[in-house]
């Protein structure tokens, strides 16, 4: 498919453009073997708050130093959902993407990202060993990215309503009265992305073991149906689904929302605004994201990209970003070695010790551990979740 | 001393106007070529590309578009959840249009009949002012106005309308936990945002109805209601249709308002936005985008059958 | 015989403007009554007061003896032919004519039959299916007339009905309107600024000036015996003489009017300079300047016409001077 498109493109190009054509084709065939001089620019598709240059808060800047050192000027395109990231990479024109596990394998399968060469990233060995060969970026032993950051999808709650942290996700899944005596109807939110089906599946894994769910990302028809049924209950409780972090923040302030799955990012911002919120990982565990920086197959700035790979592992980025976003560094040393603001306690608070409790986002596929074609694939998750939100 | 029968040419300008005078079509061609090119290539071209895309499909896992002709994508439109989106949007567009027409009419009528001089300026300013500020700012402002802890709820509570509002929000079809998270809120904001597009053409149409025609009707014995039904309304109909084409098609295509106000249920515009932008499913987005176009064609056809364009 | 329309000290003010200023007026039943005056004189407002489109600021209006001050237009048995005809563009000619019956709830069959009848009356029998936009000005005028007559009003109001027609058509329509009025026997009240039209059609007329009636009477009265300079000026191509000139010409020191056709050129008499000569067919009209005033005289065909710029003398019978008082 990729070849085909490039052939088409090649046919339309004149001889004079042959030089640029060959550079466009080369990365598709093999990984890089050496890092040359920087090309002067680097464009990154990233989650909001992932690539900060001190403009939101002076203290948080892990871009300026990189630009000064390498001369690669960084531009960022913010994406709100994994689907959006995949779409942007399919469009092309970007070098890197901070893809979560539910996007990374799709990018690999679509031929939109290239294999990377760990030997060209000197700090590769400092990566948390649990992440080095993680299945969401490693296919057939080949690495398609460099781990960036990971963290849990926490349960954010209003501390005026919950004097003690809720111990179960049931507050957002089942109709019930909250500790303040009032119903949870219209007072909870859920994530506006199909991957949220996995949260429901994880809840069922704990409460309905008879379904036999082993991974919330590998659901057979029955398990899938049970998850959707649970989400239909949730629809009746949910006033609005969130996909934009700032709209969720506003809803916690002005809409009387008191509990929702969320990211540490929103928790941090609301706390900083003196709002009565806190977060927890309930007994069922949590889904989480583990993001990988991946290199576009047609990247025009591969040298800058490799310099960024090294930068993201070795600089203040890991420590400061984990503080800023409420996440956990992919390089454990960043928690303790003082390269940034992060501390051992901070890492623990953000979930470093919960790694085992967290089931990381990954793209559901038909051929899963339950057998060939046994699981419900992602495209059905997409259309069915739209249906659930539409009240069907 | 007599003056000459032919005046001397005063330069380039005279020569050009003489050329146009001799060949009037030349001017027409010169004037029409750029817009026709624009329409033909940019607009119709992109429309054709859209149509073409809608006959492709997407590889469901990798999200890469397969460029092979198929009707599969159109069949997907008829999946229950997608049909829901279409019907929901259609219903919203109809309600928004009817409500806009009902609210806009007295305003337009007043402006056309009674507002003179300074009041006319005040009217135009009042109607256009909301159009000057950013659309997004207005929608976010409405999110705050309609919020559970927003000013509208506060007012309702203080004038004793609280129970009424609560009852409306309990309604299963359009209710929610607050106006800002209910379809009712989406509806209110749609009506507000598109209102000027209904008022202005309506006012223009009403202004073209001569007063003498209303007087003639009343003179011949018609009551005000009869005059409205048999004279004012038919003569204002082209304006109402023009306005409704705006409100109807804008509602069909909008993707910002339902994203910020409402209960997250998808509308066509939002579905197009999501499918092409966040989900990368351009073929399905294209198929969805064809829906409003088809609906508008049917709409215009019905309007024509109703005689909306007879008075043009 | 009762009056069809009666105005008792009627005024109508628009802000500071007194459009109608204390008008007393009686229009006899069955009359062909004209309201004549320059634009802004109040004649149209008077018509609109009768139809009900304007409400009087003061005074009383009676139609057939009944006070209509509080009656809206749709309940007055009075119909109007509008200056711009005001035909409904979205309806066929037949539906336009039948409109008055439709809003009364007359059934379709009966009202369309009646509409056909009226279309025949105005000599447009086969035009029912057309739209007003497909008719000529004269035809539209007839449709407007038919539409206004379908309710069989006792008073028909016509607002400058012939203003938009060309000369020949206008003259034909004048005769037709007159004949129609005779035949129907209803009161016609029509507004015009054209003195010839008013004089040739009306049984009686009122000349309006500045919101007031300057004179009311038969065409003969108005033309031959204008009571004020304004009427003399506006109605005829009459000569208006200031008191000094009247005296110089052998009358008392009063304003006077003098119709051109009685003034002839003579070998001797009061002299003036010829400033304009116009050939009329039946003779020529010669204008002489005498002091500050211009006097028109009539030279019958066959007599010598003086050159422009020469001097000429005039003569007339002293009884032809119509005196209008000191002011």
UniProtKB/TrEMBL annotation, chain A:
It holds the Pfam family SBP_bac_8. Residues 1-30 form the signal peptide. InterPro entries: SBP (IPR006059), Sperm_putr-bd (IPR001188). It comes from the Bacteria. Its main location: periplasm. Keywords: Periplasm, Signal, Transport. GO terms for biological process: polyamine transport. One of its GO terms (molecular function) is polyamine binding. GO terms for cellular component: periplasmic space. It is found in: Periplasm. This is Spermidine/putrescine ABC transporter substrate-binding protein.
Automatic annotation (TrEMBL), chain B:
SUPFAM superfamilies: MetI-like (SSF161098). The chain crosses the membrane at residues 26-52, 85-110, 122-142, 184-206, 227-250, 282-302. It is a multi-pass membrane protein. GO terms for biological process: transmembrane transport. Residues 86-303 form the ABC transmembrane type-1 domain. The keyword Nucleus does not apply. Gene3D superfamilies: MetI-like. InterPro entries: MetI-like, MetI-like_sf. GO terms for cellular component: plasma membrane. Keywords: Cell membrane, Membrane, Transmembrane, Transmembrane helix, Transport. It is found in: Cell membrane. The keyword Transport applies. Belongs to the binding-protein-dependent transport system permease family. CysTW subfamily. This is Spermidine/putrescine ABC transporter permease. It comes from Neogemmobacter tilapiae.
Automatic annotation (TrEMBL), chain C:
GO terms for molecular function: ATP binding; ATP hydrolysis activity; transmembrane transporter activity. The keyword Metal-binding does not apply. SMART domains: AAA. Residues 5-235 form the ABC transporter domain. Keywords: ATP-binding, Nucleotide-binding, Transport. GO terms for cellular component: ATP-binding cassette (ABC) transporter complex. GO terms for biological process: putrescine transport. InterPro entries: AAA+_ATPase, ABC_SmlMolc_Importer, ABC_transporter-like_ATP-bd, ABC_transporter-like_CS, Mo/tungstate-bd_C_term_dom, P-loop_NTPase, Transp-assoc_OB_typ2. The keyword Transport applies. It comes from the Bacteria. Gene3D superfamilies: P-loop containing nucleotide triphosphate hydrolases. This is ABC transporter ATP-binding protein.
